[in-house]
Amino acid sequence: MKEAIEKITAELEELKCATRKEVEEARVRFLGRKGEVTALFEQFRTVAPEQKREFGKKLNELKQAVTARIEALKDSVEESVSASGPSEDLTMPGDPFPLGSRHPVSIVREQIVDIFRKFGYDVAEGPEIEDDYHVFEALNFPQNHPARDMQDTFFVSTGHVNPLLLRTHTSSVQVREMESKSLPIRVICPGRVFRNEAISARAHCIFHQVEGLYIDKGVTFADLKQAILLFAREMFGSDTQIRMRPSYFPFTEPSSEVDVSCNICHGKGCNICKGTGWLEILGCGMVDPNVLEASGIDSKVYSGFAFGMGIERIAMLKWQVNDLRHYFENDMRFLREFDTATEV
Question: CB of 318 within 8 A of CB of 260?
């Protein structure tokens, strides 16, 4: 045993390692489960009782010496690696990191905004928590008027003259633009709106709208029709046709609902358009003189038109989505279908 201890001590003095791997191999060789020092401790059991004290001390000193040498070699190798730079190839591609996709509502919103920007429209935004005046009264909804029942409203505060509520349309932004901006006005107002409706495949309590407003001298219904036609052809294709059906909105007169020719069957009739060849996309009309006067605009000098559309509705028609709830469920399988969505 004495010779074995001296042999290992001599080897330690000559031991050199250049890599982490060599340091680990040296540690296993001496201190591993089957290492040389470990074997000596096993052999220590057979030493005569009168020699145990002497050899026990030498074995402990040997183990401490081997451990210290291994640690010294490890530190030396680490310093050498640090001085020579990283051992990894920093030019290698990293691990792929999955990214989220753009939401279909955001895609369509940007497409609509881009189309109307080309027509000279600015973008205006306003608060989602509005007062009764800007959402209803300034838009020709008198107090206790039956037209208020057209939209089931979430009220935030009640019991006073001008209660707060979650806006039911972005027309409130149009009112604020008419109150604060100089004429002529040409804006679109995208945003989120809220209505107290039962959630189903065709309705939701939260949805998104884009509304437009153009006020100037000599604006006519023909200008409105041309603007809607140009938009429809930019959004759904150059061969798209529109039809306008008489309707009613408190803030426009005359008013109209607008249909576009089905971009699936091209007017022949299919299950998307329910065999009619037409798809409803928006409501519009000439701004009611009462609305102009409420915002301080002389209705005898100026006229204008307004229109509004649901972004989810346009997205449903564009990509044949049959359930409005898909837009709000955050199902990654659904959202990833729009990773490469482009204009049609």
Answer: no
Helices (H) and strands (E) in the chain, counts: 11, 9
Higher pLDDT, 55 or 298: 298
Contact 211, 96 (CB under 8 A): no
For residue 301 the two structure tokens come to: 């000098």
66 and 17 fall within a common domain:
yes
Long-range contacts of residues 161-164, Cβ cutoff 8 Å, at least 24 apart: 162/131, 162/132, 162/133, 163/131, 163/132, 164/129, 164/130, 164/131, 164/132
Please give the residue range of the domain that contains residue 210. 104-338
Q: Which amino acid is at 90?
A: L
Both tokens of residue 173? 């932004």
Q: What is the mean pLDDT of the chain?
A: 87
Residues 108 and 78 in one domain: no
Instruction: Indicate the number of domains in the chain.
Output: 2
- Give the confidence band of 113 by pLDDT, cuts at 50, 70, 90: very high
